[in-house]
Amino acid sequence: MFSNDFPNRIYQVMLNSCVSSNRGIRRIVNYVTDIETQQKIEQKINKAVNYLRETTLFEKPWLTTGAGDNEEIRSNEEIRLRQMKVGLTLLMGAMSVLFFLIFVAYIIRMEVADWQPLSEPGQLWTNTAFLVFSSITMQWAVIAARRDQTAGAIIGFLVAGLFAWAFLAGQLLAWQLLNKSGYFVANNPANSFFYMITALHGLHLLGGLGVWVYSLFKIGIGVGVTGLRSSVELCATYWHFLLGVWIILYSLLLLT
């Protein structure tokens, strides 16, 4: 819409206006007959002009670069990170309500006579270890990112995602083992709850891995250290939350 020279033109118009106003004021001052009054007014005008020169009125901000710009960019990134943290907190709150309702429904339903507990496969212990290691390496990536150790942050972030994928693959393997043992979804309510709980948790982790993949793409195209830190911290918070949810759910399955 506007040419590249548009800001310079506007700047020149403003500068000419200031100069014209200054000249007009000085002409009016010349009509003052009292020499002492003239000198006082001249001094005030000169002070005003010097003040304006010392400020940023005559600077061209669209051409100015420096620490101020970097501080503004950093401030915008921090504001954006806080907004994303608030959104993530709300998401985790909604997820907590969902899993709490499932927890309560599980406790109530198991009191019915047709409830037949299933024996959880040992693969779930291995899967739990995968998720624990994923959470630990994600926190390692956070610490490295805060220290501006980009290479360490990327490695930790990558390894954490691989452990999470291993967890999901292990969950699918656990399902296959249960099917081979005759524990199908429709056999009894206990089986249905097990598949539902593990499926919901896995889907939420899969959503987090979607963000993980997107973050890797941003890292690949050269995102800055601030952007990397934001992605790692948000993913780490979500990872720790899902680890806590899984420990509670798995403890429920083992104890019942």
Number of strands: 0
Return the average pLDDT rounded to an integer.
78
Unreliably modeled segments: 60-67
Summarize the helix and strand pattern as letters: HHHHHHH
The radius of gyration over CA amounts to: 32 Å
Question: With helices defined by DSSP (H or I, 4 residues minimum), what is the helix count?
Answer: 7
Distance between the termini: 68 Å
Explain the overall architecture.
The chain has 256 residues and is an all-alpha fold. It has 7 helices and no strands. The protein has helices at residues 6-30, 35-54, 67-109, 123-146, 150-180, 189-220, 225-255. The longest helix is centred in the middle third of the chain and has 43 residues, at 67-109. Residues 60-67 have low confidence and may be disordered.
Topology:
Layout: H1 6-30, H2 35-54, H3 67-109, H4 123-146, H5 150-180, H6 189-220, H7 225-255
Helix pairs in contact: 1-2, 3-6, 3-7, 4-5, 4-7, 5-6, 5-7, 6-7
Summarize the entry for a quick read.
It contains seven helices and no strands.
